[in-house]
Specification:
By secondary structure, this protein is of the alpha+beta class. It is built from 32 helices and 20 strands. The chain folds into 5 domains: about 5-165, Cytochrome Bc1 Complex, Chain A, domain 1 (2-Layer Sandwich), CATH 3.30.830; about 195-370, Cytochrome Bc1 Complex, Chain A, domain 1; about 385-470, PH-domain like (Roll), CATH 2.30.29; about 490-645, no CATH class; about 680-819, no CATH class. It starts with a strand and ends in an 11-residue tail after the last helix. About 45% of the residues are buried. The model is unreliable at about 510-515 and about 815-819 (pLDDT under 50). InterPro entries: Metalloenz_LuxS/M16 (IPR011249). This is Putative Zn-dependent peptidase.
């Protein structure tokens, strides 16, 4: 089979044999080149270009894909010539009188289009690039004759086109197109923070989207997997009628695959499991020689089909436009012949490891490999709070950088600089689309001071991203005007500072006691509490190269004043990294003060709502501080506390931990907070937190207080025991673990800010276990300080239990040596 190439009026042209004469004029433009404000414009241009052909023309079509738009005609050579001439002419003079009618046609077409596996693209890419295929054509309604002419003139040009034909170039063929360059494909990175991943879906089946290396191995992988899915899901289990492995995007070096199978509701969990079993099997065990040969034979048969020449020509035209090498039939056959089982295995692993897979809404994904993709934002913006009229409504925060919506622990943030689209309704409603696909919807009738909120949004968003929407039949209204929920933070009193410290170890651990061990801080802390907050900045700035001292001072300063007390300084010094760090830490402290020291089951719904609303604002200043001081681990450690409170997923918290250890691998309070993350009550398990603690103790030098992470881990596990902490800590294997870590810590007393706290952790663990000898040693070394909550927080009054333990062990009041 010969593939020949030439040019027609400067347009690359390819032709090969076919069963009937046909032509395809391909342009390098598709849905991936649009934004939300122009979404559907290419489709509308395609419809308008074909409208003038009239009812006499038959066997033609137009199609808009991710990166190409194609006009196809079958018929006699003179009919094809007439068709191509008409299309080229129409693209340069689109019929303005037909625009509104074709908009109606596209609307009707959209009404009959249901959500499907293509939604995976929206999750993976957001509202950009290939992700646009997962969004409705929202921009159609606002297109004008001018915008359509501009779009056509930019994309439908001679330099951005290629022609494919079956049969020789017919006489009289002309392609009268305007000059213009070849348009490159913009890169489209995934917006997901991790892959493989899963997402909830209402699909009546299962679907998977992935990206693999383009080539003959990918072609044979598709064929083999198609056969395996059919055998496993339909023939063996009878849980699916049809399955498929389709290419939904073809680029110069990569291929996007959509793999799916249909099913019925009560069998969806089984289908999900069996489907992923096949994805795993082909990625872990080489295919058999018989399977590979059968797939090769099927591919060879396709190359010999009656329309293979035309398909080859269309492929060559597309490859020319996307910058890929043109392949002849012989080249394709040779590539297929060289594929080995290892090549299939390589592609299969790429497909599995880069997969985004759906899962039934009411069940989890069948394989733990596919961690659920985040549906919410991890960062909120600082700004003015806009209160809902109804008590159960979510809060909105709008500021110079963007807008955040907080409803319970769910948080959606769209930064104005990354806003990919703003829908605007005549009744005032707004919907913002972020780079990551997160949306924030604003119903002005549901919020107080809505006019100010809308003005902030309209000023912040770029005009070219706006989509004007038609009027709605119904506008939501608030049912009742409830009293606004207060986001005020209780005053910093001695009582509430102590109460929160006693119940929340991850906050208390930020402080080192006694405070007089830092005389510079001790000298001015009272004045800072009374309003002279500017005195705190030089104290923090002086610790930029001392992470332990910086974390100690930061905790004391955040404990001293509310975040609002820093607003004046922040207005004067908006880019001071120490001030941003202090503000973020103070916001976290404010939020936990609102939440109170009660256990979760005793905290009211309103308290949680206020807690999350306030806490959501901590990330923005902390991340800004991290950017301004890239070597500083402190913002990332504060983000551990923020992330726990906002109930962010483990992958996010793990990323914070990686940032901490990259900057300060032995930061004591960083490890202490990591123990909290890994504890069973948060997002880990008893085994995981203990493994982390013992690994830490094993790698540090003798005398390092990080050895006390073993005590912290055991205390966390002890508190979670139904039998109470003493039976757990008294177990021989637990006592041995504690003693081994304590002996390493005691082997070489080394000055350290956290040495007293480490002793208290060991002292609390040994006292609870009944080993008074070891407890006495460690409590004596701890000195007279506040109770370390983790060591005593199983008691109603940790401070009282600490005093009783000291009395019980005969420890007299004195300062710990060696601090």
């Amino acid at each position: 089979m010969e593939l020949e190439s030439t040019a027609v009026d400067g347009v690359p042209a390819f032709h090969g044999p076919g069963s009937e004469f046909a032509a395809a004029l391909v342009f390098r433009v598709g849905r991936a080149d649009e934004i939300l404000a122009t979404s559907g414009i290419t489709h509308l241009v395609e419809h308008l270009a074909l409208h003038g052909l009239g009812p006499a023309e038959r066997h033609f079509n137009g199609a808009v894909g991710p990166i190409t738009t194609t006009f196809v005609k079958q018929g006699e050579p003179e009919e094809v010539v007439r068709f191509l001439k008409s299309v080229c002419a129409a693209l340069q003079a689109l019929p303005a009188e037909r625009i509104e009618a074709e908009k109606q046609v596209l609307r009707a077409e959209a009404e009959n289009r249901s959500d499907g596996p293509v939604d995976l693209l929206a999750w993976r890419y957001g509202p950009a690039g290939p992700g646009m295929l997962g969004y409705a054509e929202l921009g159609v309604a606002q297109q004008t004759p001018q915008s359509l002419a501009s779009w056509a003139g930019h994309w439908f040009t001679r330099g951005n086109a290629a022609l494919a034909m079956s049969g020789p170039i017919p006489p009289g063929l002309v392609l009268e197109l305007p000059d213009g360059p070849r348009r490159p494909i913009a890169p489209s990175p995934s917006v997901l923070p991790w892959l493989p991943a899963s997402m909830p879906s209402q699909l009546h089946g299962v679907a998977l989207h992935t990206v693999v290396e383009r080539g003959p191995a990918a072609s044979l992988y598709r064929e083999i997997l198609t056969r395996r899915l059919h055998q496993a899901l339909r023939l063996d289990r009878a849980i699916s009628y049809s399955s498929s492995v389709s290419a939904v995007g073809q680029y110069a070096r990569t291929l996007e695959l959509l793999i799916g199978a249909d099913g019925i509701g009560d069998r969806l969990p089984e289908l999900n499991s069996a489907f992923l079993d096949e994805i795993e099997r082909i990625a872990t065990r080489p295919v058999t020689g018989a399977e590979l040969e059968a797939a090769r034979a099927a591919a060879a048969e396709a190359l010999d089909g009656p329309d293979a020449g035309f398909s080859l020509a269309v492929g060559a035209a597309t490859d020319t436009l996307i910058g890929a090498p043109v392949r002849t039939a012989a080249m394709i056959a040779d590539g297929l012949a060289r594929v080995t089982p290892d090549d299939i295995l390589r592609v299969a692993r790429q497909a599995r490891d880069g997969a985004l897979v759906t899962r039934p809404v009411k069940t989890g994904v069948a394989h733990s490999r596919y961690v659920e993709a985040p549906a919410n934002s991890t960062v909120g913006v600082e700004g003015r709070a806009f209160h809902p009229w109804e008590a159960d409504g979510g809060f909105l925060f709008a500021g110079p950088s963007g807008v955040t919506q907080v409803h319970g622990p769910s948080m959606g943030t769209v930064l104005f600089a990354e806003c990919r689209g703003l829908l605007v309704w005549p009744d005032g409603a707004r919907r913002l689309f972020g780079r990551d696909g997160v949306t924030v919807h604003i119903e002005p009738a549901l919020y107080r001071d809505a006019e100010m909120l809308l003005a902030l949004v309209d000023r912040g968003v770029r005009p070219e991203t706006v989509v004007r929407m038609p009027a709605r039949e119904r506008t939501p209204r608030a049912e009742a005007a409830d009293r606004p929920m207060s986001l005020d933070v209780p005053a910093r009193t001695i009582e509430n500072r102590q109460a929160v410290r006693e119940r929340l170890p991850f906050l208390a651990g930020r402080y080192a006691r006694p405070i007089h061990e830092d005389p510079e801080l001790y000298a001015v802390l009272g004045r800072i509490r009374r309003g002279s907050v500017e005195l705190g900045l030089p104290l923090l700035a002086a610790t930029r190269n001392d992470a332990e001292r910086r974390r100690q001072r930061l905790g004391s300063l955040a404990d001293a004043v509310k975040a609002e007390a820093l607003s004046g300084l922040r207005a004067a010094f908006p880019d001071d990294p120490d001030l941003l760090l202090w503000a973020g830490s103070a916001i976290i402290r404010d939020a936990w003060t609102i939440r109170s020291d009660s256990q979760a089951q005793y905290v009211g719904r309103d308290q949680f709502t206020r807690f999350w609303a306030v806490l959501s604002g901590a990330a923005e200043p902390l991340l800004r501080a991290a950017t301004l001081l890239p070597h500083d681990p402190s913002p990332w450690d504060e983000l551990q506390s923020y992330g726990r409170g906002m109930q962010l997923g483990r992958p996010v918290l793990d990323s914070y931990w990686a940032e901490i250890t990259r900057r300060a691998p032995n930061l004591w309070i960083g490890h202490y907070n990591r123990v909290q993350v890994l504890a069973a009550k948060w997002q880990g398990s008893a085994a995981e937190v203990l493994a982390f603690a013992e690994d830490t103790a094993a790698r540090v030098r003798p005398g390092d207080p990080l050895a006390a992470m073993v005590a912290a881990a055991h205390l966390e596990n002890a508190v979670a025991c139904d039998e109470g902490p003493t039976p757990y800590l008294a177990q021989p294997e637990v006592h041995f673990s504690l003693a081994r870590a304590a002996d390493k810590f005691n082997a070489s007393p080394t000055p350290h800010l956290r040495r007293s706290w480490a002793h208290q952790l060991f002292g609390g663990a040994f006292h609870t276990a009944g080993d008074l000898t070891r407890a006495r040693h460690h409590l004596r070394q701890a000195g007279w300080t506040d109770a370390e909550p983790l060591a005593w927080n199983y008691a109603p009054n940790p401070q009282r239990l600490f005093r009783l333990a000291r009395r019980h062990t005969g420890v007299h009041r004195h300062r710990a040596p060696g601090l």
